[in-house]
Design a protein that fits this description.
Layout lengths: L2 H33 L10 H14 L7 H16 L1 H12 L12 H27 L20 H30 L21 H7 L4 H28 L4 H14 L17 E2 L2 E2 L24 H9 L5 H5 L11 H19 L3 H6 L9 H7 L3 E4 L20 E4 H5 L6 H5 L6 H14 L6 H13 L36 E4 L2 H5 L1 H17 L3 E2 L10 H5 L3 H18 L3 E4 L2 H10 L8 E4 H10 L14 H7 L2 E4 L13 H8 L5 E2 L29 H10 L5 E4 L2 H16 L8 E4 H8 L23
Parallel strand pairs: 3-4, 5-6, 5-7, 7-8, 9-10, 9-11, 11-12
Antiparallel strand pairs: 1-2
């Protein structure tokens, strides 16, 4: 053996032993840290979960939102697994340069796959490196700053991982070329089982080997040993680095993403949106009827990082810092401090810093943090933090990163971060490793509301109105049917005109906005008239309705939600409701998905779904063209229309086609899609109870969305939710005042546009005009 070979063997084996030992220690740290979280069952239907894992892993279904990134990442990811055997082969080569793996080392399919993925991995990582630079916060034009999805990510970690991958694949390609040259020069021992070097065995690296053919056998052998050693050292230096940095999500997601995807909320792979998860105490769903029996120290919501479930701690650790969630977040894109990515990173760092203290013995913890030995400063800082959410003082610097201080001294997450969320679900929908951001934000809100009674002042009025009159406006329940006054037909009510819902097709759930808000009343009247025209038998609950509790739940007031929801479930049970049609996306989501948690199971349709079905069945026929209609019907139809996807209809429940099909059925109407649509739709700003809170930070979300709609050139902005109608109407008024829009542009519900196009007895539908001045934005 040469000196070079001896040194290579000793150094490589020593580094490998250290790396494996540290890696095993860190894996143990992960398991111990995750066990600190609250219990939760995520292992049902293992067959479906396995199928979901392979579908997302091999199909890259979650990555496909960015096609170029998805393709580059797929080849890079697959090469990481396929080329692992080349690392094993490298260990053989430092002992014997002509070494090849037994059985498969010279098997043609293996050699072809190896070279293919070495080259595609090389190209893939170069593409990803270029994309990271193009999207860098300092990149031109104008420096992207916080508009970069990589803003706030750990740059040294990303660079280290990228250069590690690049270095490994370069070593593999060089080794293949050197092997070719070594064989060509007869440098094999004869036991390798391979004949002369050829394109058959080296299909993509023979040309590289031609460069080295003139070298001597000894030089080629030495070169192979050196390159193999470099490959081993790069690989195990990476392992040591990530073992010493358990919060290095850009590296650890290679291992943890498999578990995180397998253990996602829905075994069938559905996005973790729709219903919020109920409050759990030690893994059991909280029964609010037995609330008095809880221990005094029981956490309602999340007040400390260890109050999250073990799945939450796994979620935080798996974050790749890719920033897809950040790039889609309405709050972040309107200059508010909330970044789903930065929030998860802060919770991750806090959890792993605090874990050693939480795992310490009772004696150590009883002595106090100052007496504890061997703890890092980060651990000491995280251990003495008294609150998870509070003031971090970021306003003094103006840097949103200051709103996240995982090691204190005062709080991990700033209050402004928590209350900026609109619960639209864009972060969850975009996340390639299935992190459930919205549930964690609401859990932290629950603690602030239920335990600390600390929440924005506007929510106090909302809660009081909901408690007293079961609607956010605080208006009397007897006014719930005022919207039906002066209609040229009767709107039947359960218990007044209809004794049993067995005699009707649907219960029409009007909702609070549809009953009380003047702009939303026009949609209610349009839906009622269309159902009447189509001959659909329906009835309303009238003053028997109460708010579904959506805003209360997403504001963190789970008690109030439970009260309202239980009341409604009992009412629906008493009247025998089974089929329900709603016009509010929030009511739709709550009744369809969340009332099931309380035993209320119904067939729930959004009004655009039912109306689209009626049009397909020819029970409603749009015949009036915009240029043929007259009066208010023409004003409501328009010539060019764009559609805004309500978050709780689209992302949360995947209802995208029916409203668009309805608009497509309108004669003479040109449709224009906004750039941010369907899964990527931008929120109107009303969700997460934000409709009842003033936007004091950054710019207004509804103005941002309205300007995007106006950019399509549409004269009608179609919506399918009364919350969206209020927010976009206000945004349109602001645009008109600023000279960015004209009075001809209107915000109208899809139902209003359909009614304007349906000719009834020669009329054009004068009930649906939306040209009146909107009332002031509702306040709590």
């Amino acid at each position: 053996m040469s000196v070079v070979q001896i040194v290579a063997i000793v150094v490589c084996l020593a580094v490998t032993v250290v790396a494996i030992a540290l890696f095993a220690k860190t894996v143990n740290h992960f398991l111990a840290t995750f066990r600190l979280g609250q219990p939760e069952v995520r292992t049902d239907d293992k067959g479906a979960r396995t199928a979901t894992l392979f579908r997302e892993f091999l199909g890259h279904t979650r990555m496909s939102r960015l096609p170029l990134v998805a393709a580059a990442h797929w080849f890079t990811m697959i090469s990481f697994g396929v080329l692992f055997l080349q690392l094993v082969n490298a260990f053989g080569q430092i002992f014997r340069p002509d070494f090849a793996l037994p059985l498969i080392g010279h098997w043609l399919p293996y050699e072809w796959v190896t070279e293919f993925f070495a080259w595609t991995g090389f190209v893939g990582i170069l593409v990803l490196m270029v994309i990271r630079q193009v999207k860098h916060p300092r990149s031109a034009p104008g420096n992207l700053g916080r508009r970069s999805r990589f803003f706030g990510s750990s740059w040294w970690q990303a660079y280290y991982v990228e250069y590690t991958i690049l270095g490994v694949v370069i070593c593999i390609l060089l080794l293949r070329g050197l092997e070719y040259a070594l064989i060509w020069n007869g440098g094999t021992t004869g036991s390798s089982g391979r004949g002369p070097a050829s394109l058959l065995h080296f299909p993509m690296t023979a040309w590289l080997g031609e460069i080295f053919k003139s070298s001597s056998v000894d030089a080629l052998a030495t070169a192979i040993i050196v390159i193999a050693a470099i490959k081993i050292l790069i690989s195990f230096a990476w392992m040591i680095t990530i073992a010493l940095t358990p919060t290095m999500g850009v590296a650890w997601h290679r291992f943890l993403a498999f578990f995180n995807i397998f253990l996602k909320r829905h075994a069938d792979g559905r996005t973790s949106l729709g219903p919020l998860q109920p409050i759990r105490i030690k893994g059991e769903v909280l029964d609010f009827e037995n609330i008095d029996e809880l221990d005094e120290d029981a956490a309602l919501g999340v007040g400390k990082v260890e109050d999250f479930t073990w799945k939450g701690l796994l979620d935080f650790t798996t974050c790749t810092e890719c920033g897809r969630c950040q790039s889609q977040c309405p709050a972040w894109n309107t200059d508010k401090p909330l970044s789903p990515k930065l929030m998860v990173m802060a919770l991750r760092d806090n959890a792993h810093a605090k874990a050693p203290w939480l795992r310490a013995s009772e004696e150590v913890r009883a002595a106090g943090i100052e007496q504890a030995e061997g703890l890092s400063e980060h651990t000491k800082g995280a251990a003495v933090l008294e609150q998870l959410v509070g003031s971090t003082g970021y306003e003094e610097t103006g840097d949103p990163r200051g709103a996240y201080t995982p090691y204190g001294p005062d709080a991990v997450i700033d209050d402004d971060v928590l209350w900026s969320c609109v619960a639209c679900g864009a972060c969850v929908e975009q996340c390639p490793v299935d992190i459930e951001h919205v549930d964690y934000i609401v859990d932290m809100r629950r603690y602030k509301v239920l335990i600390e009674s600390a929440f924005p002042s506007e929510l106090g009025g909302l809660f009081k109105n909901l408690e007293k009159n079961q609607n956010p406006w605080g208006l009397a329940p007897r006014l719930r049917m005022d919207w039906a006054k002066d209609l040229p037909f009767e709107v039947p009510q359960v218990g007044v005109d209809v004794e049993s819902l067995d005699d009707v097709d649907y219960l029409f759930w009007v909702g609070c906005a549809g009953a009380y808000e003047d702009r939303a009343k026009k949609t209610t009247r349009a839906v009622a008239e269309l159902l009447h025209t189509a001959g659909v038998k329906y009835a309303c609950l009238g003053d028997g309705e109460a708010c579904t509790g959506d805003a209360a739940r997403r504001a963190g007031n789970e008690f109030l939600f439970q009260m309202l929801a239980q009341q409604n479930v009992e009412t629906l049970g008493e009247v025998g409701a089974s089929k329900i049609v709603v016009q509010c996306a929030h009511c739709f989501n709550t009744i369809k998905n969340e009332y099931a948690q309380l035993g209320g199971h119904y067939e729930v349709l959004h009004h655009t779904q039912l109306l689209n079905r009626l049009v397909r069945e020819k029970r409603l026929t749009p015949v009036t063209r915009p240029d043929e209609a007259s009066g208010e019907g023409a004003a409501s139809t328009g010539h060019k229309v764009t559609y805004h996807d309500p978050c709780y209809l689209g992302r949360h429940n995947h209802v995208y086609a029916p409203p668009r099909e309805l608009l497509g059925a309108l004669p003479g109407v040109e449709y224009a899609e906004m750039e941010r649509s369907r899964e990527k739709s931008f929120c109107c700003g009303a969700g997460g109870a934000r409709m009842w809170m003033e936007e004091q930070l950054g710019t207004r979300i509804n103005n941002n969305r309205t300007e995007e709609a106006l950019a399509t050139g549409a004269d009608r902005i179609a919506i399918g939710c009364p919350f969206c109608k209020v927010m976009l109407s206000d945004g349109l008024n602001a645009a008109i005042q600023d000279g960015k829009a004209t009075e001809e542009v209107q915000v109208v519900d899809v139902a209003q546009m359909l009614l304007a196009a349906v000719r009834r007895d020669g009329a054009s539908g004068g009930l649906v005009g939306d040209t009146s001045e909107p009332e002031p934005e509702p306040t709590a």
